Amino acid sequence: MSTPGQSLGRAPAPFLPDDAWALLHSISAVAQAPLTTIAERLREAVLPYSAGSALVIFTEDCTGRPQKKAGDEGIISRVSIAELQGLRASLTDGHPWLGEAEIAAEQRPVLAIRHVHSNALLVVTDPYLFNGGAAPDPALELVQYFWHIAAHRIQEKVKDAPPSYLLESRAASAERIRVTAELVDQHSTTLETQLAALRSSSMDDAAARSTVTALTAKALVGLRTLSDRTADLVEEPVATAFERLKEDLRPLTRFSGISVQFIEPPLSGRALPGEVAHAARAIVRGLLLAMMEQPEVRRVRAQWDCDGENLLINVRDDGLGALSADADSIGRLDRRVQALSGRMQIDVMEGWGADVSVTLPLDPPAMPVGDVAAWNLAARELEVLQQLAAGKRNRTIASSLGISENTVKFHVRNLFKKLDVGSRTEAIALAHSHGLR
């Protein structure tokens, strides 16, 4: 990424809104936007104040879809996670940054803002020329305000995600890993073949061979690194996930007047799937809030552990044992636990406090095959769906079933219609929900 510079482009109208209601409607649209359209709503809100050809949100809270994009298709279809990670790593705080960065394989003027609390990133390409920081710019401050609303909205929606979202998130995460793995294998084979050829004694130009060998080896390292980064988005080390929990709760524990003790999980514990890590943090937050609302609570202890197959959560208070398992807040948390096929146990001891234990499986459960007859699938269509659910690509399915790749595409289109879905990810999630693996 180069040195910060001036952004080019035509400035929109001066920041003198004639209709305050339009601004309020924009705030409301962003604050209420579902995850699927939040990038579009945010771009509509900030466009009058920042212009820009495209808007990209990069958030690890959404493990299945870490990028949310709107605007110029030529940019949003080519922007990579590696580019966004590099840009985010260069931002040390939550202040807006104006300069040039590589986005969609080209150096472009960008406005970038990192949301400190969630580490999410906002990027607006080709923004209009702000005043260079000579004085507070109302338009820039408004863009930052809209982004903070959107970032909090994303966190809120992920915390309250229904079971269907969790299923789709897991399917999308697994699909992205499989696609990346295939790309790694394909390009690694190509590059390794080039290395073998260039190292051959039949080549005379040793200098050229050495140079190209070094370049190819570097490309191999970069490709493997990209694979590792993709995997990192899907899983989170258990110690890192726990640190994020402590950071999230820091304001609550600082001003509540209640002592909160955190018992660290073992560093060697198994990495957590992204949706499990997010759910675990939300569950502990909810339990702490419920316990702190009781009278006479002075201390709360939160502990995580991992047995290799499950994340084990324990939260205990020293109150009078007034926590009610029938409370609405506890019911909501229990439904979230059940969405991940987990278990919650509450022991309330009068005069001694409450002890809550939660077990969250780290792997999706093996579900019994549901009734798929209502889909009216032909035998071949069911075979293709089973192959899709197993994570196979069209070419592999064609080879496995002895049919052409175009025939596979034909069956996939028919599956989309019969299952009433719009993507492979949705089809895979639906198949998994019926026990097809």
Structure in words:
Helix 2 (38-50) packs antiparallel against helix 5 (138-159) and helix 12 (394-401) packs across helix 13 (405-419). The chain has 14 helices and twelve strands. It has 437 residues and is an alpha+beta fold. The strands form three sheets. The protein has a five-stranded antiparallel beta sheet with strand order 2-1-5-4-3, with helices on both faces. It has four domains: 20-159, Beta-Lactamase, CATH 3.30.450; 163-235; 238-361, Histidine kinase-like ATPase, C-terminal domain (Heat Shock Protein 90, 2-Layer Sandwich); 373-433, Arc Repressor Mutant, subunit A (Orthogonal Bundle). The protein is 50% helix and 18% strand.
List the main descriptive attributes of the protein structure presented here.
437 residues, Beta-Lactamase, five-stranded mixed sheet, 14 helices, 12 strands, 18% strand, globular
Mind sketching the topology for me?
Layout: H1 20-31, H2 38-50, E1 51-58, E2 67-71, H3 73-76, H4 81-89, E3 97-103, E4 106-115, E5 120-127, H5 138-159, H6 163-198, H7 206-234, E6 235-236, H8 238-255, E7 259-263, E8 272-273, H9 274-292, E9 299-306, E10 310-317, H10 328-339, E11 343-349, E12 353-361, H11 379-389, H12 394-401, H13 405-419, H14 424-433
Parallel strand pairs: 7-9
Antiparallel strand pairs: 1-2, 1-5, 3-4, 4-5, 6-8, 9-10, 10-12, 11-12
Cα distance spanning the termini = 43 Å
CATH class of the largest domain: Alpha Beta
CATH topology of the largest domain: the name is Beta-Lactamase
> How would you classify the helix and strand content by structural class?
alpha+beta
| Strand and helix order | HHEEHHEEEHHHEHEEHEEHEEHHHH
